[in-house]
Amino acid sequence: VPSQSGDASAPPELAPLRRLREHTAPLYACAIGGGLIATGGDDNTVRLWPAGTEAERVYWLALTDVAVALGRIGLQRYSAAFDAAGYLDLESLQRMDASQRAEVAKATGMKHGHARKF
Question: Which keywords accompany this UniProt record (predicted)?
Fold first, then answer.
């Protein structure tokens, strides 16, 4: 959810709405429709969530994209850390060079071997 900052020209800061603790394995799917968000995970479950506002839907999709990408490389345990640090733009993460990825790994508390994988 966008939070208010003092500078009207600054991009909105995102604050977590909720964590997907109900899933016990990486997420691989997200769909929005009919006032609901459906998430599917490797825990063989599909979960339904209220969709909320447009800002909430944008947040959910961004969070899910990053969580799914991390899950594909076995690093889903860092999804909450990426969320908390504001790394919700998958395209930006994918465009980073090695030194930028190393900074993200440090900021999200990745172990050395996991950081190399990232």
Answer: WD repeat
